[in-house]
Amino acid sequence: MWTTLLTTIKVNVREKSNLLWLFFFPILMASLFWGMFSGLTNIQVEAQNFAVVHDSNWNSVPGADSLVASLAGKNSSHTKLIVPTVVKSLGEAKERVNVKKDSGYLYVTDQGSLGIAISDDMYNKVTNTLSSSTAGVVLSSLRSIITQFNHAADSVEGVSESGNPAKAQQTIAEYVKASAASAGLTYTHDRSLTHFAPDQFARYYYALLGMVCMMSMSFAISSITSAQANLSPLGARRSVAPQAKWRQFGAIMIASWLTSFASMAVSFCYIRYVCDIVMGGREGLAIAALFVASFTATALGLLVGAIPRLSHGVKTGISTGIACFGALFAGLYGTFAMNISDAISRDAPALDLINPVKQVSNLFYDLLYYDSLQPFVQTIMILLITGAICVALSISIMRRRSYANL
């Protein structure tokens, strides 16, 4: 039995297709995810060149210079949004925008409100979703800040007209201070409702692990197919060997289980330590999840491999179809697929039970997003029951197998 076990492991590892699809392919996909998502989690705001029109209208608005100083990052606690250039008229500001020296300009209208104008180039950057989002962040922030500034100015004007100069001066001072602070972009604060804050793109990586897990069915399929006398010369020799069938089956199952676990462990370690997708200190439980998931994948592979009369290529195609089709409803293929996955989990959760890719990805989802381990244990039980059923069915098929001739 031990000889069969070691030989099966060597054959599985030496198979070039296994090395490609179960070791290198997930690393390549994880690298592509990391390249696409790494720049989206931490956007660096790049200050934009803006002209500031210092005409007679501008001088009539108190606090405008303080606001521009804050937007320019003169206060180190504030985010630098603009690189200002002072001009004397609207015409000069428009000329700078036309020759692409500035992305826009700030000015004060005849009604005393602060306004903003942007160039066509900046507008195209904001509206083009394939472009850098830096310009969009800056423009959105400037609009919000200027809106608050104008609302505060209206309040100051109302106090001034009330005939209370002292109160007006106090309000003006508070208004200038608020205008300066508004450039700090501290309108919201992050709060985590779980034991740690997971990466917003982590679900894609663990949906990938779910697909890789089901693709590792091919280890068991190759091993069990080679043990069938009507499909493999090796199987014909094994069928007349004195070793009991249960020993052969047990060795094949354990060897396939270990190689499946090894392929998943390599992918997980790459995702965790190279792509830096954290598990909130639950890496040990994640390894246990890999062990259970690889058992289920092996059991499914044994069941598919035990199907009589189908060639090895057809059986491998079935396993690939299960992995790729299941990955669609686990959300691997983008936002649209993730929305479908969420809709099924919300409206028809029973369908998730028959999707092994979804159940494997749920193992890591449960660890990422829940403080309690109850959902994790529940998913573990689902995978164990699924694996046990598949092992029982494959044993039933194999033990009844007989051949009229070899």
Helices and strands, with pairings:
Layout: H1 2-14, H2 16-37, E1 48-53, H3 56-59, H4 64-71, E2 82-87, H5 90-98, E3 104-108, E4 114-118, H6 120-127, H7 134-161, H8 165-181, H9 202-215, H10 217-226, H11 233-239, H12 245-274, H13 283-305, H14 312-328, H15 335-347, H16 356-369, H17 374-399
Parallel strand pairs: 1-2, 1-3
Antiparallel strand pairs: 3-4
Give the structure's gist in a few sentences.
The chain has 406 residues and is mainly alpha-helical.
Shape: elongated
Low-confidence stretches: 182-187
Helix share, percent = 55-70%
Helix and strand element order: HHEHHEHEEHHHHHHHHHHHH
Largest beta sheet: what is the strand line-up?
2-1-3-4
Global mean pLDDT: 82
Continuous helix count: 17
Largest sheet: 4 strands, mixed
